[in-house]
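WARN retry 2 of 3 for item q-0093 after timeout on previous attempt; input resubmitted unchanged.
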Amino acid sequence: MDEAWEEENQQVIRVLQALKQASQDLQNNPISRKDDSNSSSLNALLELENEADTFFSNDPHLSNLSHHLSNLKTLVNKLQQCQDYSIGSFLRRPFYNHEISCVAGSIEREIQAWIDREMVENLVKSIQGSVCEDEKVKILSQFETRVSQGFNRDLQDLVLKANVFSALESVLCNSEFSKRIREQSAFAIGALVRFNKNVFVGQVLMGPAVRALISMASRSSIQVLCSLIKSIKSPIVDEIESNGEIPKIISFLSSEDFSIRVQAMDCILEIGYFGRKEAIEAMLEEGLIKKLVELQRSEMGDDLIEMDRFDDERKNRGVCVGGVEIDSKAKKESEERRVLERELFKNCVARFAVQLEVGEGLRQREKRAFKQEILGRVREASLSDAEAATIVAEVLWGSSP
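OK item q-0093 returned
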C-alpha cells in the first residue's frame, strides 16, 4: 500500500513540476498574437485543467490550484475572442494578458507551496524512519538546495512548525548516523542560517551544533563551521572560545588530511577577522604562530626547490626501469599537489596578521598589541635570522593599511 501511495505521489510531483515550468514560461512570454495561444506551455496548463479532478481530488491543499486553472482557461478564452483589429480588442488584450500572467504566478506559487510541504514532511519522516542512507542524503540535499534559493515566508512557517532545525541538529549530533548523513545535515543547517539569520542563529548558539561540527573533524564539518562564522560573526566565535574549542581547531592544522588543513586555515582566518581579544589570545597561547611558521616553512622549504629542479630535468619524458618506460603521471600529480599546498599556505602568517588588523573583533589598541606579539612569536619560532626577517617583513608590509 505504501509503495502504491509513493508512486502516485511521485506522479503528482512530476505533473506539478511540469506545470510549474509551464507557468514560468507563460509569465516570461505573455501571449501577444493569436498563434501564441496555441503554445506548448499554455496547452499544458489548459490540458491539465481538464484532468485536475483526477490528479488533485484527493489532496485538499490543491483545491486552489484547480480554481486557478479554471480561471486561466476562462481568461484565455476571452483573450482569443478579442484578436481582431478593433479598438476594443486592442484595449482589452493587455488587460487579459496581465490577468493571465497573474494567474500563472498564482499557479506557480500554489505548486511550490505543495512541493515544499511534501519536501518538509518527507525530510522529517526520513530522519525518523528507516530510509536507506542514499535516500536520506538525497532528501537532505534537496532541502538544502531549496532553502539556499532564498527566503520564503511560507517555507519558513513549514520549517518551524515541523521543528526541522531540531531534527537536523539531532542527526548532526548523533554518531549512530553515518558520516555522509551527518555532514549533509550540517550543510542543511548552514543553509537555514543563511535563509534567515534572525530566526536560526539563536538556535545554533544555544544548541550543541557547533561542538558537534568541531568534534566530527571532517573537511565538510569544518567548511560548515567556517560558513557559520562568516554568517554569525563574533557571537559564534565567543561561543567557540568559551567552550574551549579553540585548541581543537588549531590542531586541525596538523591533520594528515590535506583538505582538513586547508579548511582549518580558512576557519582560523575567519576567527581572526571576527574574534575578540579572548579568542585571539587563546589562539596565540595555543601556539598558532609557531604552527603557521612551520606550515609556511614546510611548503616553501628546500625540499620543494630540490623537487622542482629534479622534475625540470625530467620534463616531458618517463623513467626507464628494466627497459620499460614508466609514465610520469603520478609524479606530475604529486608535484601539482605540492605546488597547490605551497600556494595555499604561502605567507600564512602575514595573512593571519592582516585578518586581525582589518577585522571587526578587536579595538585599535588591541590590534597594535597583537601585531607586536605576533612579530615576537615569529622570531621565537624561526630557525634562522633570515627566516625571521623574511616573515617579519611579510607581516609588516602585508598588514599595512
